[in-house]
Structures
1.
Amino acid sequence: MKYRNLTDKEIKKLELQMCTCDEWSTIFVTPDFDPKTIYNSHFSGVVKIGSQNEKIKLFGGIKRQAGIYNSTIHNCGIGNNCYINYVKNYISNYNIDDHVIINNVQLIANEGENSFGNGEKIAVLDESGGREIMMYDQLSAQLAYITTLYRHRSKLITKLEELIRAYALEKRNVRGYIGKNCVITNSGSIKDVWIGEHVRIEGARHLDNGSIISNQIAPVTIGNNVILKHFIIQSGSSVTEGVILNKCYIGQGCELGKNYSADNSVFFANCQGFHGEACSIFAGPFTVTHHKSTLLIAGMYSFLNAGSGSNQSNHMYKLGPIHQGIVERGSKTTSDSYLLWPAKIGPFTLVMGRHYKNSDTSDMPFSYLIEGNDKSWLAPAVNLRSVGTIRDAMKWPRRDKRIDPNKLDRINFNLLSPYTIQKMINGIEILNRLKLVSGETSNEYIYNNTSISSMALNKGIALYNIGIDKFLGNSLITRIKDIDFRNLEDIKKQLRPDSDIGKGDWADIAGLIAPKNEIDTILCDVESGKIKSLCEFELRIKAIHESYYNIEWNWSAGLLESRLDKKIEEITVKDLIKIVQRWKKSVVDLDQMLYNDAKKEFQLSAMTGFGADGNADTQMADFEMVRGKFEDNSFVKEIKSHIQRKSQLGDDIIARLKKCESFYD
C-alpha cells in the first residue's frame, strides 16, 4: 500500500478527538485516511495505518466503524478495516493484517528478536532431560518420534537439531504478527506470539512466546482463562476452558479443554485432553484422556483411550523421575489403572488394574493385561475378538478432524499390518517356547514379569493364527482380485514382489507404519548431509506413507512363502485356494466372535437400571427405546453384512482360481 504523512488539519482533528503522539511525523496513513476513525488513542514510534472505511460486525450483530479507539499503539503496522478498541496498556511491535478485531485486551507486545516458540526444547519421557524435542511450527509426529527415541544416533540428533535451529533463525523477527480476520477479545496479555490467520482468542488470560498456525480452512480457537507459555498450536485445534500449558506442542485437529493442564508435552493430530493432567508425555495421534483424576506422565502413547484415574509412576525416589514407559498404539487403560515405569505395553492392549512390575508385552499385541492376586496376568490375543477394538479401528478415520490440506502427521489406521502381524508371529514363537520350557501341563507361565494361564496361552496361539490368516488372505486377495489372470504364471507374476523395499522388520513411527530399513535409509541420509532441510525429510517420510500398500505386499509375499513353506515359483493354485479358504474361515470366525461380544451389551444384566418402577416387560421396553434392539444395531448389522460380503468375495476368488487351475491343467 502507499502511505503518506498526516496533514496539519488531520493532526488538529485527531488532537480534538483526544489523540496524542510522541512525534506525528512518524505516523503514516493511506491516501483515503479519515481522522474520524481514530479516537482517544496514543501513538509512538513508527506506525502505519491502512484504510478504515468499512463497518465491522461484532458478535451479536453489533456493527462498529473500523478504526482505532481508546488504545496505545507503538511501532505497529495496522492493515485495512481493523477494529482496535480499549487496549488497556498498549500494542507494541506488531504487524496487524487486514480485518482484525482487537477489543478489550490488556496487552499485545513483542520485545526484541523472537522465534515465537520455534527452537524451544520440550523434555518428553524423561523429566530430567535427555530426550528433548526441539519444536518448530511444522513439526510432525514422525520427526518428533525420531528425535525422542533415536538418541543412540548422536550424529543424527545433532543434524536434526541444526536444521531446526536454522529454521528457527529464519523465523526470528523484531515484530510479532496477527493474521487476517483474527478476533482477539476480552483477553489479558499476549507477549511474543505469532498469530496466524482466522484465529479466535476470546477471554484468554495469558499467552507468552509461541506460534498459532491457523488458516481460513482450519482456524484455531483459544478460549476463556487459557494460559499458554512456550508453545506452538497447529491448525484446526482448540484450546479452551481454563487450559494451562507450559512448553507444549499441539498438533492439528486437537481439542484441549475443561481445565486440562500439561507441562513439557507434545500432542499430535486429533488428541483430546479434558480435566486431567499431563507431564512429559509424547501423545501420538488420537491420544484421548477425558477425566479429572487421570495423570499421564513420562509416557509415549498413540491411539490411546485413558480411563478415569489412569496413572503411571516415573519416580523410584532414588535418582529422580528418570523412568519412562511406552504404551503402543490402540491400547486402553481402564478406570483406576496403574502402571509402574519402566514398562512397555504391546499394541491394542487393554490394561486393567494396578501393575507394579516392570512388564514388557510389546510382542503380545491385542492382549488383556489384568491385575489378579497381586500379579499381572496376560491374556494374549483376546482383544482381537473384542467388539471395542474393531469399533475403535472403524471410528478413528471418521474422527480425523484435520481439515487443513497440509497434513503434518502421517497416519496409518490399519489394524492388521506388517507391524502387528510380525508381533503376532513373535508372540506365537514365544508362547510355544514357554510351553516347551515349562511343559504343556503347567498351569502358569511367566513372561516378562507377567503370568499367563495355560488356557490363555493356548487360546492366544489360536487367535494369533487366525489374525495372521486374515491379514495374509487380505493381502493376497487385494493383490490378485483386480487382475485378469488366465493361468498360474499370470498369478505368479502378480505375486512376485515389486522390489526389496518392505522386507524385514517394520515399525510404528508415531502413526506411520513403515519398514525399518527405509526409515534407516532416511536417517543415514540426514547424517551424511544428503538431506539438507526439514522439508526434504518430511517429503521422504511422506513418500513412504503413500507407498504403503505397494510395499506391504513385498513383506506379505515373504509371509506367504513362510506359511506355505515354499517359494512363490513353487506355489500351486491349490495352495492359493487353501490360503483363501483359511482367510474366509478366519474372517467368519472373528466376526462371529465380535457378534457374540456385542451381544453381551444386550443381555439381561445389561438392562439393570432400566424400566424404573416397572416389571420385566417395562425394563425390556425401556431398554429397547434407549439402546434399540440387538439386530437393529448399526454395528451388528455391519458385522453381518461384512460376513456376507467377505464370504462372497472369497467364493468368487476361489471360483476364479479353480477355473484357472482347470485351464492350466
2.
Amino acid sequence: MPSVIDSDMALMVPSGAPTELKSKKANTTAFKVIPETRAMRDQIRDAAVEHMRSADKSAPLTKDDARAFAESLLKKLGIGEQYLGFTLVCVMNEFWRDQVAAIPFNRRLMLLPHCLKNAEGCPAEYDDLGLNCEKCGACSVADFKTKSEQLGYKVLVSEGTPIVLKLIVSGHVDAIVGVACLNVLEKAFDKILMAGIPCVATPLLSSNCKSTSVDDDWVFKSIELKIEPPKQTTKSYVHLMRAANQMFEPAELGRICPRTRNVTGKTTDPLAQHEDIAYDFLAKGGKRSRPLITLAAYDALTGGHGVLSGDTLNLPDHVKKAALAIEAFHKASLVHDDIEDDDAFRYGAPTLHRQHGIGTAINVGDYLVGLGYRLVSRERKVLGAEVAADILDKLADAHLKLSEGQGAELLWRDAPDKALTPLDALKIYALKTSPAFEAALYSGVRLAGPIDAYEKMIADFSRNLGVAFQILNDLNDWSEDGNNKLVAGQDVLAARPTLLLALALESLADKHELLSLISAAREHGSPDDTAATDTVNRVRAIYRKAKVFSKSAAMVEKYRARAEAIADAVEPPELRELLYYLVDSVLETPNIPDEAPKEFILQLNLPGRVSTNV
C-alpha cells in the first residue's frame, strides 16, 4: 500500500487494490424519479418481493449490493434506470421486512416527515422532538400517527437521522418504519441500515418538501407488519453500539470507574466539584466511535457473538475499562484543543474553559489523561503484565503523536509565515487524528490475543481512516454542526492549518488576500461579530472559486478507498466486516457547502470494496 501522505496528491486507485475494486461506487443522484403511476409502483414492489425472496440475509445489505439487485430487477422488467432510487428502497424493504415484522410493535419507531402535513393552516406546533401533531383531518400524518400509537409504536414527526440513531443506541427501539423522500432515504442507507438496524420505508411521491403525498395503503401495511421471528437474522452492530453508549450512563460509569471524591452526591467540596466537572464532560455526547472500536474489535476476535441480533452482550469489565480509557484521552484532547483554539462550543454547549475558566479546564483535561492511564494500569493483574504494557505503550505513543500534531498546528498558527502545502496539512492530520483510531483498534485486538499479525494493518488502516475523518471534520466546519460547533467557519477564525486552506493556496495565483484574511482572523474577537462574519464569507467565496470543497470531498473518497483496500485482506471475516463498518460509519457522506458543479461530483465515484452478497 502507498503511504497515506502522497506528495502528488493524485486521486487514484491504490496500487495494491484488487482489480475488482476499480468498479465505480454507487451514485443515485440522477436516478431519483418516482414511478408516475400506481400500477408501475406496484409492479416494481411486487418484483422486489420475488427478487429478494432467496437473498442471503445473514449480513447487512450494502448500497453496492442493493444497487446490483435493483439494476438487475429493472433490467428484468425493462424499466428505465431513472427509477433506480425507488427500486433501491423496494429492495431494501424486502431485505428487512420479515425482521421488522418480527419485532414487537412497542419496540418500533414510526418516523414521519414534516412535509406530509398540510402547509396551509396546520395547527401543530414544533417541540424538541419535531412536529407535535394534532388530529385535524387536513393530512395523513395524524392518521398514521394514531394507528401507530394504537399498536404501541413510538412516533416521531421529524427529519434527519441523528435523533433516530440516539433512540436506537439508547435501547428504546429495535426497528424503524418510515416515510420520507428519496433524498432522505438515501442518507438513511448510509447512517442507519449499515449498522444493521431493521427498517422499512415508504417513499414520498415527490420531493417538494411541502404538502407532499404518499401511497397511504402501503404505509398502513408497513405499520401493521407482524410475523414470528425469521429463522435467519442479520448481523448487527446495534448491541455493541448500545454497550459503548451504556458505559457512559451514570450507573454504569459509576460502577466501572467509581468516583472517589463525590461519593455522596454533595458538591460543596472543591475536590468533588472538580471531579464532577471531569466526569460530566467524560459522559457528554459525541458518537463514542473510539470506545465502540475497542469493544467491537475485541468482540470480532473472540467469536463475534456481539454482532448477532438478539444476543445479550457480556463484555468483561477490563475490556470496558480499556474502551473507557480511550474516550477519556479523547475528551482530554478536546478540552485542551478547545482552549488552544478558543472554541466557543462543544457538543452544542459552551466549551469548558468558557464555562469554568482556562485554568480549571486545563486541569480537567490533565485529570482525564491520568484517569485514562489508571483505568488500564490497575487492570494489569487481569490483563497480564505484557498485555497491559503493550496497551499503555500504544496509548502513550498516541498521546505523543497527538501532541506533536497539535504542536505543529499551534506553531504554524503563531508564525508570521502562513505558507501551507497540502502535504503539510496531511502530515498534521496523520498525527492529530489517526493515533486515536489506532489506539482504539489496537487495544481491542490486543485484549483479544497476540498482536503481531495485525500491527501493521492497524497502523495503515487507522492512518487512512483518521486523515479522511479530519478532512470530513473540516468540511463540516462550514456547515452549522449542532453536534460540535454552532458557528460555521471556526477553523478560519482560529487560523487553523486545514487541508481546505492548503488546497486554496495551492490553486491561487495571488495568495495575498487569503493569507491576509487568515492572519487577521484571530484578531476579530467574538466569532459572531460583523468583522468575523465578513471574513468567513469572503474566505468561503475564495474556497468556492478554487473548488476547495469539492477537492476535499474527493480526498475523503481517496482515503476511504485505501482503508477499504486494506480491510479486503484482513482475516477473520468478523474483523474484516468490522473494518468495513468503521469506514462506512466514521466516514459519513461529506457536507459540501454550496453544492459543487454536477460534473465534478460525478468524478467522485472512486473504488468501492468487493461485493460479497451478489
3.
Amino acid sequence: MNAATAYGWKKKILRIDLSESERRIDRFVPEQSLLNDYLGGRGLGAKILYDAGRVEALSPANLLVFATGPLTGTTTPASGRVSLSTKSPLTGTIFDSNCGGSFGPAMKKAGYDAIIIAGKSPEPVFIEIEDDRVELKSAETLWGENVKATTGFLKEKGSGSVACIGRAGEKLVPLASIISDATHAFGRGGVGAVMGSKNLKAIVVKGTGKVAISDRAEFSKQKKAINRLLIACPTISKGLSVFGTPFLVKITSWMNVLPVANFRKGEPEQDFNLKPFFAKTIEEERAPKRRACYSCPIACKREDKGGGELPEYETVGLMGANIQNPDYEAVVEANRLCNDYGVDTISVAGVLGCYSELRGKGISPEELVNLTRMVGDKQGVGEELGKGVSSFAASEGHPETAIQVKGLSLPSYDPRGVKGLGFSYATSNRGGCHTRAYLVAPEILRKPKAIDPYTLAGKAGHTKIFQDRFAAVDSLVVCKFAFLGAGEEEYANILSAVTGVDYTSEDLMLAGERIWNVERLYNVREGFGKADDILPDRFFEEKVNGRVIDKEEFLKTLDEYYRMRGWDEDGVPREGKLRRLGIRRKK
C-alpha cells in the first residue's frame, strides 16, 4: 500500500464517558496504520474492544463502539451501513451488529470514524451530536417510552438521525436491540441491553460535512462498474429489488431448508398454507413500497401503504412455519412490536420455537403478538423468554430444545440441507449467525458460483474464505447483498479511489483474516474454545427429509478448518499466524 492520505477516513474518533465521576468528551486521532489494517466498522470496533481488556457485558466498563467505514458517507453503492461492537450480554462473545438507514452517513458527515461510549450515567440521558457540538441531555421524560415515540420526539426537535432503545433495552432484556430511525436494527446479541445499562436512551447525529474523495474521476468510473454488476445480477435485479428479502421463502421451502416446528420437520402440515408468506403473494395483496438505505440501488426493504415496516425473510420464516403460526398478519404485527420495543426478531422467534416445542403445539397468531409484547415488557413468561433460548430451555430442564450456537438462536435455514452454512454457524465468532460467512450466497443463491449444499466436503476452505471476505465487507461498511453481484476487486478499486491508498482484493482478504483472528482471540480470552464450535445435537441425530449431519465428518472438517486458519487443535491462533497478521496477543 502507498502512504496514507486524509481521504475517506475522517481521522477522528469521539469518546464519551457517561460516568458522573469521569464524565468527559474527548476526541483523538487514530493511527493511520490502525485504519489501513482494520479499515473501519467491524474491524475497528473489534480492535478497540480487544485492546480494552476483559469486562462484564453490563458493567460500565463495557464499551459501545459505533464505527463507520472508509466508504461510508460517499455515494459508493450499498455503503450506507454502520457497525456497532460490544461484548454481548446474551452470548458473552465479542459482538458486532450493523444496520442501514442514515445513521452511519450522518456520523461520517459529522466528522467521526467512530464513537466510543463508556461508563454509566447516574440518570437517563441522550447524546446530541451536530458536527463538533456534542452534548449530553436529560432523557428523564423519554425513559419508559418505546422506539417510535422516542424517535418521533427527537426528530421533532431536529433533523438528525436517531438510534435509540425501547423499554426492552431499559429493562436490560438480553434480546434487546438498538433501533435506528424507527425501523433499522442493530439487532441480535442484546446490544440494546448494553445501551440501557449505561442509562443511555438515544444518540442523535446530524452532520453537515462531506467525505473527501481522493480521485473523483476514478471513483465515478468504479461506481458505474459496480452499478452495472448489480443490475446484471438476477438475484438482485429480479429478486431483492422487486420483492425484498421474502423472495427467499419460496426458494428455501422448495429446497426443504425452511425450518419447521423448531427445526424438527422438513415441511409444514398439509393444512398449513405457506402461500401467504411468499413474496409474490405479499406483492399482489399489499403492493408494498420499496425503501432503500442511503446510497443503495438495491432497495430491499418493504413498507405497506401506510408506511409501516414489513418483515424480512428471517422474521417471516421463523415466526411462521417454525412456530407453526399460519397467519402472516400476526408476523407483521409481531415484527412491528419487536421494532418498537427494541428486541431482535430472530431471537424472539427462536425462543418461541423452543417454547412451542415444549408445549407440544404451535403458537397461535394471538399468542405470537401477546408473547412478543410480554418479552418487550419483561412481564410474565416473557421475562424468562427474554433471557434467550439457551437460558429458557435450561430453566425448563430441556437444554436440547435450544436451537443455538454460543447462545445465539439460529436463523431461518436448516443446516441439514445447507451443510456449509451450518458449519459456518458453528464456527461463527458471535454465535449462530448466517451473515458471518453468508454461505447462503453460494449454497442457495448460487452466487458468485454454485457449491453443493448437501456435503461438508471442501466447506472448511469455503467457510474460511467467506468469513474473511465478509469481515472486510463489514468493515468497509458495505451491504452483503452488493457482493451477490460485485466482489472484492471492484470494492478494492473504489476504496483505492476514495482513500488514495492502493488496495487490492488480496489486501481486503488479509484485513478480513486479521479481523477474524482478533475476534477469535477475544473469545478465547473469554473462555470459548473447540467445545463451543458445534451445532445442536438435533442436527447430528434427527433426520429431516432424509438428511442428517455426520458428526464424525463435521469434527474432521473442524480440524481441517483450524489447520487452514493456522490455529492449534483447540482452535487457538498460533503465534506464527499472529505475527504474519501483525497481531499482538493480549491478556
4.
Amino acid sequence: MNGYIRLILLIASDAVLINVSIIIAYLLRFEGFTSASPYLQDYFFISPIVITIHLFCFYCLKLYNRVWAYASTGELFAIVQSVSLGSLAVIAMTYMMESLLPRSIVISSWAFIVLTVGGSRLVWRVMLDRKKGNGRHGKRTLIIGAGDAGVMVARELKNHDSGLLPVGFIDDDKNKQKFSVLSLPILGTRERILSVVKRYNIQNIIIAMPSAGAEAIKEIFTICSQTNLDVKILPGVYQILNGRVSVNSLRPVAIEDLLQREPVKVDLDEIAGYLKGETVLVTGAGGSIGSELCRQVAGFAPQKLVLLGHGENSIHKIWLELEARFPGLPLGIEIADIRDKAKIDAIWQAYRPGVVFHAAAHKHVPLMEFHPDEAVKTNVFGTQNLMEAADRTGTKIFVSISTDKAVNPSSVMGATKRLSELVVQNMDRNSNTRFAAVRFGNVLGSRGSVVPIFESQIKKGGPVTVTHPDMKRYFMTIPEAVQLVIQTGAMAGGGEIFILDMGEPVKIVDLARDMIKLSGLEPDHDIKIKFTGVRPGEKLFEELLTAEEGSTATNHKRIFVARPCLAEVSALDKQLLLLARNTTQVEADDVFDTLAAILPQFKSYRNKVEAV
C-alpha cells in the first residue's frame, strides 16, 4: 500500500475511533442516549478540536511510523503514551477555553480510546497473520526450547517464508507443560521427543538453547539423532542478547557444540589496552592457530600487524583475508624460516615489534619421531632465535605457544616443546622483555588434527581409524584457544607457563562416534570404527602439569600458572650447546639421547622398546 494512502486511512480510522470512544464514555456517564443527548450536542461542537489534539499527539509520538504487522508490547505502550498525552492536552484545553466537555468524560474515554485504537492494530496484525498462514507450506518443525531463543526462532519462522513450518515446542520446564506460546503448543519434555516426532509428523528439528551446557546439548542431540531427521542449532547466546535471530543463524549441530566445557569469556578492555597502537608480530601466521591469532589481534587496532611464516601459500591466503576484512590496518608480510638467525634479526630490527605471539612449530608427533633433528632445530633453536631478537630490540611481551605434550613427554615433539618452555623461563630471568608460554591441548579443526581426518574418512564411507579405545585428549576450539592466548599476554609478568583449562578430556572413540552421528549415520553400522594401535610417541592420556609444577589460579577462572622448576634451567645453556652439535649429525639416536639427558621426564618409545 502507498505510504500516503496508508497514513490517510490510519488517521481517518483513528478519528472515527476517538469519536466513538468519547460518545461511549458519554453514554455510560449519563446512563443512556436520552440523558446524554444535550451534552453530546455540546461535544459535537468541539469534537473537531478534541480529535485534532489526539491525532496531533499520535503523529508527534510517531504512532504512524510503526509497522503494525509486527506489533507487540512496545507498540501497545506507545499507544498508551499517545492517548495519555492527548487526554492531558484536552483537559488543559477545557481549563483554558472553559469548554463544556466534562473532565470526567475525558478521563473515562482514555480507556476506551486505548482499547479501540489498540484493538484496531491488533485486528490488523491478526488479519495479516492469518493471511500469511493460509496456504503456508513447509517442513513441519519442532523447536527444542521454549525460552527467549525458541520464541524468537518461532516468530521468525512464522513471519517469513523460510520453508519451515513451526508445529510446537519441547521444553524441560515442568511449569510450561500444556501451555502454548505464539499459539504453538508445548508438547512435552525431552523424553517425549521421539513420540512427538512420530505423532505430529515432524520433518525438521531446531535446538534453540544457546545458554544450555554442552552435556545437555549432547543428550538432546543423541535423542534427536535417533529420528534420522535434519537437526539444526541456534549458536551463541550473544545473538539472543542482541536480538539477532534469523533463519540464517541456524546451522547443523557441530562437534564444538558437544564439548563438555563452558564458553570462554575474555576481558576485552584488558586485551585492547596492551595491543592497541602496538606493532604485533605473529610467527606461523599461516597456520591454524597463527591465522586465528592474526584475525583476532587485527580487531584490537594494533599500529601494525606483521605476518611471519615459512609457507608462502598459507601466508598469502591470510594476507588477502586480512586486507579484505581490515582495509585500514597496516600489514607486514615476511616469508622466513625461524631457524634463519640472520633473517630473524633483520626482521626484528626492521619492525621492532612490541608484542610477539610465537605459533610456528613442528607439531605432528609420529612424523617428528623420524626427524628429531628437525624438531629440535625449529621448536628449540628457532624459538631461541626469536627470543634473542626480541630481547635485543626491546619487545615488551613475547608469548610462546606450547602443548600438553610437553608434560612428561613421550615424544620428540613434546620434548622439544618442553625444552622451549625452559628456554622461555631461562631467557626471562635476564631480560626486560616479559617472556611467557601458554600450554594447552588439541584444537578442533586444526590442519592435520583428528577432526578433519575423521571428516575425510566419513565422507569416503569409512572406516574411521582410532589408535586405541582408551585414548583420551583435551580439546578446545581454535577461536577460544586463541582468545585465551591473547588474554595471557595481558596477564604476563614474565617467566610464567600459563595453562588453559580445557575442561574434561574426551575419548577419541566417543569423538569419532559423535562425528559419525553428526553426519546422519550410525556408528558400527553405516561407518565402521577400526582400532589401529598406538603410534610412536603417543600417550593414552595427556597431562597439563608435571607432579613437580603444581599450579596457582589467576584472575581468570580458565587460566592457571604452573610454578617454575628453576632447578631444571640451571645448566640449560651448556646442555643446549651439546644438543646443537648433535642436531648437525645424521644419526637420530644421538638427538634422543641428548634430549633424555636434558629432560629426565622424557620417556621415548625407543627406550621402552630397548627395555623389552
